[in-house]
Amino acid sequence: MAGISHAGIAGCQDLETRLASRPQQVRQPPVQREQPINNVVGFLDAIKRWQLARQGFSSGRKRRVYSENPAIQALEESFTVKFALYATFAMASVVLILKADDYGSAEESLRRAVFGLVLALAAVVMLHATRQAPCRRNSRITLVLGGNLAHLLIVSLILRLTQSTDSPEVLRYLLVPFALAPMLHGVLLGRVVGTFSAICVSLISSLLVPPQDMLGFLTISLVSGLSAVLLTGTVRKRGQLLRAGILTGVVSLIIANLWGRLDLVSCFGSGTMDHLKVFCLGSAAALGTAVFVALFISGLLPVFEELFQLTTDISWLELSDLNHTLLRQMQLEAPGTFHHSLVVASLAEAAAEKIGANALMCRVCAYFHDVGKLKKPAYFIENQQDGAENPHDALTPTMSALIIIAHLKDGVDIAVKHKLNPRIINVIQEHHGDSLVHYFYRRAQEQKKTNLDKVDRGLENPEDLPHVDEKNFRYPGQLPSTRESGIIALADMIESASRSLRKPTLAKIRTMIEELVRSKMTDGQLDDCPLTLRELTVVKDSFAATLRSMLHARIDYPREDDRGPPTPKRSELQRPRPSEGEINSKHLPPQAAASPA
Ligand SMILES: [Fe+2]
Ligand SMILES: [Fe+2]
User: How far is the CA of 373 from the centre of ligand 1 (A)?
Assistant: First the structure.
């Protein structure tokens, strides 16, 4: 239970007892082979596959797998690279300050450079100390520090240009793209990193202007940067980015007016035309720069996403198009799985929104989570017609489990082939964790019991009995490692179980969700998931509300004359606390195991 916070665990002693008493499942860490050994094993595998193909036992093809290049992974985690990035940023900031126009004595320049170095070092220390996920990988640190450095360089160039060409005084600061780094980082890495960039570039760039303008420049840069971050925090369409750019320009204008750079009041006094001309020039510069920054970021967003392996909400929204080739194929060849995926997407998106996780990512990943079922759709119960022959009837439970489990690897294979987003591939790999295919495991045990009876009666040879090993009935996937992945895993299981609910009521739905989530936790499937207990409670409430609205037509409302027992209290409806016996007997998902969705 490493990833589950125990805050507010009151009333969960039964869960703790079960966790303590459950046999500790030994999870083998992924085998780390050396590269040469990997090559040898791969070569031997290829020979074995070729031999099997020749004998007609194999198609000779190999499933595609998804894994990060070890060299890139090493670079991403290298502390030396990280340190070099920090040092480059600090030194480059100092050089920019020293190269700025001499606004005073050499002593003043040196004082500014030292102050700039302190600010740059404080920024890298903050970046290093932060526990924000976007700042752990070296590529993301390159994006943050590189973006800030580019911002400072552009500010320095514009200041030099406006000073050297004797441009109107009003243009000197209003041509500066205050929103560049904050908006870029806000869209790509989130509000926290965007705010960090806004503060960092505002403080350091204020050392590039004359002392009398320092405070005003700092104010306009900080307010414009923070406004850009605030306005782009929930951007889902490119048009919204442009609107955010225009609003940021307006904010810059207001601050410039308050600071005295622009004087709107003078436009209504003597010399109206001259003042109006200056005001229009300044407004055009501020608005034009802000709009240009928004368009520049919007245009280069796909490049940044590809380069730094990031996915913004804008891209998630584009990926949520149901006309994707795979989704259309699923609609035609596996309609049951397609419907299941849509319901899981709705459940997961609503729950993710409630706890502040990436709701759009949840929706898209849920659409594709069972894409592996496209290889053998008829073997999954949701695609079987009523009364039609069940292909599992002709198979042993072990073989059936193998086919069911294979939809994970088939999913990764299809996803890699269609170049789906790596985060979707992660969800495909993680949505079942290493859980058990209960239905076929139970069937195998029942068959074994029957065969043992036959052995006792001398009808069967004990050596001929098939060996039933639990690990053959477990998914080989990884445990959910993100909040989004955990939510999808839970939504997946709950959607499958909800199909068998007869006469669903709100209380029944809540009890079912409570029991299923508890069984998932007891099995250790959420051990690597950063969801807290508080978030899990919110997620469960959200699932219940969404399912209730989805099953509305099926919900059986008691008639006046049917009302037997008194109406339960509102608190009882919200927090059903079933007994231990009820948890194990009623809603553990036999149908979910039979059709591991
Ligand atoms: Fe599923
Ligand atoms: Fe699945």
Answer: 9
Ligand 1 centroid to 65 CA: how many Å? 20
Which residues touch 127 (CB under 8 Å, ≥6 apart)?
86, 135, 141, 144, 145, 196
pTM: 0.77
Q: How far is the CA of 393 from the centre of ligand 1 (A)?
A: 22
pLDDT digits (tens, 9 = 90+) for 245-276: 999 999 998 888 887 767 666 666 666 677 77
Do the Cβ atoms of 420 and 411 come closer than 8 Å? no
Query: 453 alpha carbon to ligand 1 midpoint, in Å?
Result: 37
Tokens of 127: 């970046």
Ligand showing the shortest atom-to-Cα distance for residue 491: 1
Question: What's 320-434+478-559+567-594's CATH class?
Answer: mainly alpha
Angle at 450 between CA 447 and CA 456, to 5 degrees: 140
Centre of ligand 2 from the C-alpha of residue 369, in Å = 6
Position 357 confidence tier, pLDDT thresholds 50, 70, 90: very high
Secondary structure letter of residue 436 according to DSSP: B
Ligand nearest to the CA of 366: 1
**CATH number listed for the domain at residues 76-313:** 1.10.1760.20
User: Which tokens hold the place of 104?
Assistant: 């005073």
In whole angstroms, what is the distance from residue 354 CA to residue 359 CA? Answer: 9
Please report, for the chain, the start and end positions of each structural domain, with discontinuous segments joined by +.
Answer: 76-313, 320-434+478-559+567-594
